[in-house]
Write a structure and sequence with these properties.
single chain; about 160 residues; alpha+beta; 4-stranded antiparallel β-sheet; elongated; signal; Protein CreA; Uncharacterised_CreA
């Protein structure tokens, strides 16, 4: 019963988070005679709690008949790059967040049980936002992950 409730809650989260990203483009990686090709998709999303931070996520998307119907499970491969696009002001809630981070993005990568998510951390000592992307399953996780950092510097200045 607990697994069914967890799966239902997870599925609800997956579908509610899908509208947060914007597809920038994609490249085909494997030709499929039936259904769409396998591809790498590039998506952009803005951090919902930190104004002027945009992240770009590339991830594998499975094609074929199952992929075209939304029934395929995408691989856990993904890359992440986040940038400052304007002045950043951090709230105390973000600065005081615990070491487990805060989820800022989630995309389902299978029909129910798998998702790719981005979690934000704040490194107070270095005044830097750290974004971690990883794939997980309800049953077991994946060690595949990628990291991006955004140093909080006055807008228009650079490190020299």
């Amino acid at each position: 019963m607990k697994k069914a409730i967890l799966a239902l809650c997870s599925a609800t989260l997956f579908w509610s988070a899908c509208a947060q990203s914007e597809e920038i483009g994609s490249v085909d990686t494997v030709f499929k005679l039936l259904g769409p090709d396998h591809k790498i998709v590039i998506e952009a999303f803005d951090d919902p709690d930190v104004q002027n931070v945009t992240c770009y996520l590339s991830r594998a998307k499975t094609g074929g008949i199952k992929g075209g119907l939304g029934l395929a499970e995408d691989t856990a491969d993904g890359a992440l790059s986040c940038i400052q696009v304007g002045p950043i002001t951090l709230t105390d809630r973000i600065k005081n967040r615990k070491a487990d981070g805060e989820e800022v993005f989630r995309k389902r990568t299978s029909i129910i049980f798998k998702s790719m998510q981005v979690v934000r951390f704040y490194d107070n000592k270095r005044n830097t936002l750290v974004y971690l992307v990883y794939s997980d399953k309800v049953v077991d996780g994946s060690p595949k992950n990628a990291l991006s950092t955004v140093p909080i510097i006055p807008w228009g200045n650079s490190h020299e």
